[in-house]
Amino acid sequence: xxxxxxxxxxxxxxxxxxxxxxxxxxxxxxxxxxxxxxxxxxxxxxxxxxxxxxxxxxxxxxxxxxxxxxxxxxxxxxxxxxxxxxxxxxxxxxxxxxxxxxxxxxxxxxxxxxxxxxxxxxxxxxxxxxxxxxxxxxxxxxxxxxxxxxxxxxxxxxxxxxxxxxxxxxxxxxxxxxxxxxxxxxxxxxxxxxxxxxxxxxxxxxxxxxxxxxxxxxxxxxxxxxxxxxxxxxxxxxxxxxxxxxxxxxxxxxxxxxxxxxxxxxxxxxxxxxxxxxxxxxxxxxxxxxxxxxxxxxxxxxxxxxxxxxxxxxxxxxxxxxxxxxxxxxxxxxxxxxxxxxxxxxxxxxxxxxxxxxxxxxxxxxxxxxxxxxxxx
Length: 377
What we know:
By secondary structure, the chain is mainly alpha-helical. The protein has one domain (12-370): Farnesyl Diphosphate Synthase, CATH 1.10.600. It has 16 helices and 2 strands. It has a two-stranded antiparallel ribbon. Keywords: Magnesium, Metal-binding, Transferase.
């Protein structure tokens, strides 16, 4: 009898990823059911907030929990046990609730009407107010509900993270990363708000300001802290954590630069990101900074007139997009994404003390997070 062939690595990655997703969904469902029962003792209206959060979470890609998981697998240098999968899944569920809180608040700050191809939470609440004929401003009501729901998500994330099982020293190390993540993303959010208002004076120029926002708003809670969290929980030492950090900064920065491109050259149906959203919101991205630096006088006038104008029509937004392409800004940002992705791959390959299974999982995630070849860039 011929011996069975070993499971192909790609198939094993897929199996473990599916197991993680299943456990995160089960953990999240159970945790939110408990919170719904708790709020139900207050009022049925309070309990309905959990339903809103469940609806908001639908369609999430679980990118951050996946980075956490594969960072943990890389630190283990072997397949995780059922108990280790459970610990990483619970930590992933906590991370995803931090993500939900950040998005709920971010949509309010940016006046974003759409999230994941659906009305943003503050818009949904506003429409509920209008449909029910409630008193007061429907818009202000929607904003208030979204803020409260984001606060609840952040609170519940902390409660879930506080109950992560495992050896005390490893849990404490993972918790320290979790706490750093929350501080950094909120600080990055503040820098984003400040930059939008033209008040980020310590940055040398607009592009460096945008990169600083990426470094402290996107990188920590998208890649850096999640991957360090999982690795720390699974016993990684400082050299492994530092190697993962260097990789994460490259991948996390590339991820956000790619996300900036999606508003110009992405597929709205595929991404759920409204085309032109960054233009009408006036997002001060690296892409915009490079466009401004390269534009002629006519282009500068166009940018001044359209960027940040919530009432800008489709033709005006399209003209800005054409300018971004014509100035070479889109191509240069896409080239930076590719360069950072390549640098990240090199760092991951050179990192010592990491298991091959986890390394493969991290690289697969990085490819997904930094792909620009499928865009019209």
